[in-house]
């Protein structure tokens, strides 16, 4: 090892203390500064120096881990991200792992995600600490459902990096016995799924584990391999590794057959069959395209690698099936929406593929115009702009289609019919196999991590005010040029769009996907009854790829709507007002009447209690009353008040007469 010269002093790098070397010692002292910005800057500077000197990098690990106990969250987060960069293949001991265990249950998602990144690249020093870490990661999933995918990926890497320790911990991780049968655990439990992922990934590098696994593990392996192929290794091919023996493999009956080659064969066969559809009759060709679309949808479910391209061609064949035979206004509108989805959700087209989809979009638009008998001004303007927009794309692709300009401005319906007949004869429009399996087509997808299903919690609010819930989403293949919003729809047909800013979006280092953290706000001025509201994610198209009249009003919904129960508090206030009127009436009664009412109340206390137990809640607790019932009850209360007042006046008159007599 070369010596390092600092201030004309030669220091042996192996025996040197990092805090004793001039500038480096100052940086380490900066980690204990009283200002959080100074500590964060010192962490960044330590990382920059450690990139140039491996010796200092190995010694920095201990100092960076000690920053996990800092009082300021962004300083802790900075230290965790730096450790994830410099701790590749390094061993963490017991005390260092304990600092990680305390932070794995932090409320901050960024903190937990940074710790998962660290655990993917490090090795654990002893099996006991690894076992504690495994249980803490399982607890992390149970407490924070949004961390499920991240923790499972972390467990996969932990199993591969610590395979020797996993072999020692096998009796603790899985129910097993040397000569007795054990009860098979439920696969639905998350702790068993986590244990399977750790053990199976460790078996990939420690093949002796396979020989002692219980029989139920092989059955669970087949299911897990199908459900989570990215997290479960293919142990059938472990003989391909140089350090594994060929004898420790799964048997043929317990191994999982690989579906990728078969799905590719099916995909290629469908593309070859598509060329035969041109010779069929219109009605038969429509059925043929529908069958091809259904088969391609099955291929998308079989193979994740063919998901985007299979869904793209499936939607294309659905449009061809609609416009081939007996197209009406309703089906033509459906074809238009599918064309807009093809130009909005999918990316990576070649220039020719993009132009074919754009031309198909115009064809469906003109076909819709040709089916009408009378056109409004807005429809005409939209059609004129679409034709002009598509002509510019045709010039770019050096394609010309003759059309009558006079007919365009005098009779738009006849022009649409003429233009459709000319487009349908163009050879570029009649291509059906212009997309290949190896084309880099990507599909934008957004999934809700929290909430995953319908919101069970009742959301209460006052009319005119708002109530909000937090949501967490994961987006893949999202073009940052596109705008993404949250659409909230109410039962009366009204809806609103909530913007998602760049501050709410961050990139994940594990798979380059986007994590979106936002809030969904529900607000309605005239909402008087409990009802459901739905929210979903909408994607706006790019003007250069898809024709839109107004980019702020035309969008594509890319997620299934999730329902939330909205419960207004206005009816509760009405019921409280009713009870206040009842109290006023009781105060105007005579003492004798009040005594009789009290005696009656005492006698009926038990009956009231029984009635409440049977119903579970009274009317005020439910907070739910119809407007007609509440108005009727209020009118009855007013009549009761008038009757009591008249009775009180009559009694007072009788008293005066008695005194006179």
Automatic annotation (TrEMBL):
InterPro entries given in the database record: ARM-like, ARM-type_fold, INTS4_C
Region (Disordered) location: 569-661
Record's keyword terms, sorted: Nucleus
Record field: transmembrane: none
Biased composition (Basic residues): 570-579
Compartment(s): Nucleus
Assigned GO CC terms: integrator complex
Pfam families: INTS4_C (PF25458)
Major place of residence: nucleus
GO biological process: snRNA processing
Keyword ATP-binding annotated: no
Residue span(s) of domain Integrator complex subunit 4/Protein SIEL C-terminal Ig-like: 448-570
Biased composition (Acidic residues): 598-642, 652-661
Protein name in the entry: Integrator complex subunit 4/Protein SIEL C-terminal Ig-like domain-containing protein
Organism per entry: Adineta ricciae
């Amino acid at each position: 090892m070369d010596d390092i010269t600092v201030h004309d002093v030669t220091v042996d790098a192996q025996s040197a203390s990092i805090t004793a070397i001039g500038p480096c010692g100052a940086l380490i002292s900066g980690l204990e500064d009283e200002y959080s910005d100074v500590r964060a800057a010192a962490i960044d500077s330590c990382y920059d120096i450690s990139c140039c000197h491996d010796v200092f990098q190995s010694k920095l690990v201990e100092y960076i881990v000690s920053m996990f106990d800092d009082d300021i969250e962004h300083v802790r987060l900075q230290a965790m991200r730096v450790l994830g960069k410099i701790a590749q293949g390094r061993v963490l001991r017991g005390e260092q792992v304990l600092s990680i265990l305390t932070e794995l249950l932090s409320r901050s998602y960024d903190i937990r995600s940074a710790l998962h990144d660290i655990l993917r690249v490090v090795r654990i020093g002893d099996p006991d600490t690894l076992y504690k870490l495994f249980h803490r990661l399982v607890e992390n999933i149970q407490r924070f459902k949004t961390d499920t995918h991240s923790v499972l990926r972390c467990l996969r890497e932990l199993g591969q990096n610590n395979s020797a320790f996993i072999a020692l911990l096998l009796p603790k991780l899985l129910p097993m016995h040397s000569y007795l049968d054990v009860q098979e655990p439920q696969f639905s439990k998350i702790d068993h799924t986590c244990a399977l992922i750790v053990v199976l990934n460790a078996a990939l590098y420690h093949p002796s584990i396979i020989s002692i696994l219980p029989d139920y593990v092989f059955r669970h392996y087949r299911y897990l391999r199908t459900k989570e192929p990215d997290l479960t290794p293919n142990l059938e091919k472990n003989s391909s590794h140089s350090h594994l023996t060929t004898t420790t493999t799964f048997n043929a009956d317990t191994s999982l057959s690989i579906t990728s080659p078969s799905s590719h064969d099916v995909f290629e066969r469908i593309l070859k069959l598509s060329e035969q559809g041109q010779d069929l009759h219109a009605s038969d060709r429509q059925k043929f395209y529908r069958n091809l679309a259904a088969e391609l949808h099955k291929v998308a479910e079989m193979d994740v690698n063919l998901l985007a391209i299979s869904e793209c061609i499936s939607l294309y064949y659905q449009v061809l099936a609609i416009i081939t035979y007996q197209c009406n206004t309703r089906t033509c509108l459906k074809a238009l929406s599918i064309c807009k989805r093809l130009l909005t959700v999918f990316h990576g087209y070649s220039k020719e593929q993009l132009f074919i989809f754009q031309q198909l979009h115009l064809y469906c638009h003109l076909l819709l115009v040709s089916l009408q008998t009378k056109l409004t001004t807005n429809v005409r303007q939209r059609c004129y702009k679409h034709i002009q927009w598509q002509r510019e794309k045709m010039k770019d692709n050096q394609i010309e289609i003759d059309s009558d300009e006079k007919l365009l401005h005098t009779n738009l319906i006849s022009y649409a019919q003429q233009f459709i007949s000319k487009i349908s004869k163009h050879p570029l429009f009649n291509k059906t196999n212009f997309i290949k399996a190896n084309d880099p087509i990507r599909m934008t997808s957004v999934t809700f991590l929290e909430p995953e299903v319908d919101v069970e919690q009742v959301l209460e609010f006052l009319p005119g005010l708002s109530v909000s819930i937090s949501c967490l989403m994961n987006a893949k293949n999202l073009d940052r040029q596109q705008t993404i919003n949250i659409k909230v729809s109410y039962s009366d047909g009204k809806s609103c769009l909530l913007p998602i800013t760049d501050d709410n979006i961050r990139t994940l280092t594990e798979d380059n996907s986007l994590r979106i953290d936002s809030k969904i706000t529900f607000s309605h001025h005239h909402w008087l009854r409990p009802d459901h509201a739905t929210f979903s994610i909408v994607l706006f198209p790019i003007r250069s790829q898809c024709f839109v009249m107004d980019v702020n009003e035309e969008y594509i919904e890319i997620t299934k709507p999730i329902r939330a129960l909205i419960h207004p508090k206005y009816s509760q206030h009405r019921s409280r007002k009713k009870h206040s009127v009842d109290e006023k009436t009781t105060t105007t009664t005579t003492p004798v009447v009040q005594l009789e009412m009290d005696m009656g109340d005492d006698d009926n206390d038990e009956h009231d209690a029984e009635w409440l137990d049977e119903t579970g809640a009274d009317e005020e607790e439910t907070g739910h009353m119809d407007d007609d019932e509440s108005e009727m009850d209020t009118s009855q209360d007013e009549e009761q008040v008038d009757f009591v007042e008249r009775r009180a006046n009559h009694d007072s008159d009788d008293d005066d007469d008695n005194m006179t007599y």
